[in-house]
Amino acid sequence: MENNMWGAIIALVASAALEQINSNVVQNRQSREVGNAMRRQREYQRQAEKIAMDNADDFQQDTRADRQNEIKQQLTEQYYKPVEATQTANASNATVQGNVSSDYQQAKAASDTNQLKAAKDFAGLYGQQESAYRLRQNEGLKMADNANQIARINNFSRGMDNVDQYAIRQAARPDGALSFGSQVLGMIGSSMIKGQGKPGNVGFT
């Protein structure tokens, strides 16, 4: 009888131990899922903030001036190069019958130079005017693209948050095997103790 009592105590203690182990497993598993979810959300937030900050940097006065000057140079070259090529080709193909004076040659060279200078000045003026429009256009396109990127990140964040919340709820569920083992040991221990109280089992010490 005394052995049965000790067996009952051991079963009940083992049942309580399994229950505690199960509780610890659940807490650790849930804490891990919560931590992973928080890290993912922080990463999404970091990505969105970086896009916003980079976009803000683009509107710094010095940055805009440098970018507009770069656009101006590109446009100036784009407009001037064809004129320069055409003028050079025309000068090479031009022929003059008979002897010409050095004054004429100098005058023609000066005229060609002036025409090229005028073309370059016009290309520079047009590039300056057009660069302001192109800069605003590029900024608008980039802002729209950044807004789309942030919206996609927000969508990913919400979708992943739903997945994480489900994983956290699943992690809160007790381990089936540990729960079953704890219940069985508890039932065995309780049954053994009850058996000690039946008639004829009194005075077992």
UniProtKB/TrEMBL annotation:
Protein name: Uncharacterized protein
